[in-house]
Amino acid sequence: MDSFEINKIIAAVLMVALLVIGIGKLSDLIFHVEKPEKPGYLVELDQVTTASISKESSVEEKIDIAALMAMGDVVIGEKIFKKCAACHSINKGGKNNIGPALYNVVGRKVGGVEGYKYSKALAAYDKEWTFEELNGFLIKPAKWIKGTKMAYAGLRKEKDRASVIKYLNQSSDNPKELP
Predict the structure, then answer these.
(1) What is the pTM assigned to this prediction?
(2) Hey, what domains does the chain have and what are their CATH numbers?
(3) Which residues contact 161 (CB under 8 A, 6 or more apart)?
(4) Is the N or C terminus of the chain more exposed, i.e. has fewer CB atoms within 10 Å?
């Protein structure tokens, strides 16, 4: 192939590129579209709709703790607690490890173990470890109590959480009555 043939091929490719660019510029001139100052559009909601949406979101956060606890099994909870045993003891009179001892935890004040240095967030959290609190905390501890130094990812399965809570409740001098 001689250089004249190569020049014709290159010229054809350049002409196609210029033609495509030229058609794009020409169409922008012919079909001019004004862009809005703010992208998107406003959806107007009346106050009744807004109130019902906020009520629905608060209803979703409420969990039927009695139904949840009915799903749990103490034997399964004991098996799952083995993950927790790396940091917590569950025995009566057990010592604090990386985490506080969890014997008698259900019904105890959050941050209430003597001799354990809690994070500021847990020490300031002025509640008791109820079934609901334990369930929320075990879903994702760092999200439930922001600032806790407990780095555990949490238990996603409801049955696993209910089983662990039942096991924790059983590991007590006076187990609380299940809801």
Answers:
(1) 0.64
(2) 64-170 (1.10.760.10)
(3) 68, 72, 134, 135, 138, 139, 155
(4) N
